[in-house]
Amino acid sequence: MKNDLSELGLIDAHYALAEKSFSKENYVTSLIERIDKVEPLIGVFAHYDSAQLRQAYAKLDYQDVQTQPLWGVPVGVKDIIDTERLNTERGSAAFKGRVAKSSASVVERIQNLGGVILGKTVTTEFAWRFPGKTKNPWNNTYTPGGSSSGSAAGVAAKLMPAALGTQTLGSVIRPAAYCGVVGFKPSFGAISRTGVYPLALSLDHVGVFTRSVADAAYLASSLFHNDGLDFPHLNTKPISSSPDWRNWAKESSKLSKPLKIGFLRTSKWNLVSTEQQLLMDKVAELLNDSGAHVREVELPDPFDSIWATAELIQYAEAGQINESLAKENPSKISAVTQALVLKGLNITMVDYVKARRIQQELIAEFSIFMKGFDALLTMPATGEAPHGLNDTGNAVFCTPFTLLGSPAITLPAGWSSNGLPLGIQLVSDWGRDDELLKIAAYVETQLASIYSHRKIQLSNQVNI
Q1: Residue 389 in contact with residue 131, Cβ under 8 Å?
Q2: Is residue 20 one of the residues assigned to a domain?
Q3: 103, CA 20 to 30 Å: which among 2, 164, 261, 315?
Q4: pLDDT at 461
């Protein structure tokens, strides 16, 4: 058992609490002590109340342990996701002091399964590009990425074992890669968005951040749920459960047949840093040597339109969603968001309908393409996190799989010369979440031979 209980991952924390390896009071105290040390240095939280957190743990009843798979698990929640007791200000001065009348469906599900909402994590304004206060925990002069900035940084800095984020273009996968954690964006429709402030409803996904694939699979298996409101006619296949989640990763990494993996560089390969390119080649070679069949692939020509199509849909829908807000409170909205609305409102209905048709055609074509592969290996980002705090990074390598609604996961796989994390991205076809997570568990095992975890040194006094 780790001396600092806040270092425990989701599965380890849940089972240790359930087995009374330590008390829930000791666990919450460890979390609060870590937050008190680290939060002033990187700014993870939009809202956090240690007294409320202690109260939530005090209310947990040990009689519920056997029926609540998230019992005692603290989860950070991105600040565009409504919570009944903690403010949800959506990263904007326009909603300062706002408290939702009810929690989002995904928050209610966490709590119904015994989980505890640790706090609200920083988001860019409305999950777009105007950054909040969060810094990258590996070097606070670099961005943590966005828009799920606080969730990625908080999990990396071990303030929480898991957190919720959202992705419209690249807002789970990219910050997870920049901060060196696992980020999982499930298939479109897998997790309800009821109570989540939208950016573009045709693209928005709820995703999770953890420090291992097993933890991501465990949390996702709990959150996959159709509330009948957001996606009333859409359901992905449920993630299969395991009698003992502590052995899930070990069992999942035992493949019954060699994997068929497509190494996808895309037409944007020239944007990738040399360090990231070398890492991708190294991982492809490693997987091939492990027995997987890895071959380079290209998407068919129609996919060249995927970036422009996603951008048009995103602008059009975000412009409509935020139009009245930008008109009524222009002084409280960033110039970045105002530009987003203006650009969106200038898109014609004809162009929008055409883009949505192209999206559906590409989804169908990608499904056919993926029949020949178990997963694709590609980049989660162009390289390490950008220097400075005004740019949250380029979503170019996440955008295609958001438009397609495909499950995607990023794993930490290396380090840049500046000591910042570098990751890889694995992708599959819509609805193949269970399969993708098991493949990711296998890949995570293989990466152990080339990737070593490091401790973050935030200052001379705080090592994490």
Answers
A1: yes
A2: yes
A3: 315
A4: 52
What's phi and psi for 444, nearest 5 deg? -55, -40
The CATH code of the domain that includes 443 is 3.90.1300.10
**Pair type for strands 182-185 and 408-415:** antiparallel
Average pLDDT of the chain to the nearest whole number: 95
What residues are labeled active site? Answer: 78, 147, 171
Can you give the pLDDT at residue 234?
A: 75
pLDDT grade, residue 240 (50/70/90)? low
Residue 275 has pLDDT above 90, yes or no: yes
State the pLDDT at residue 124.
98
CA diameter of the chain: 61
| Structural domains in the chain (count) | 1
**In which domain, by residue range, is 58 found?**
5-302+361-447
What pLDDT, on the 0 to 100 scale, is given for residue 460? 54
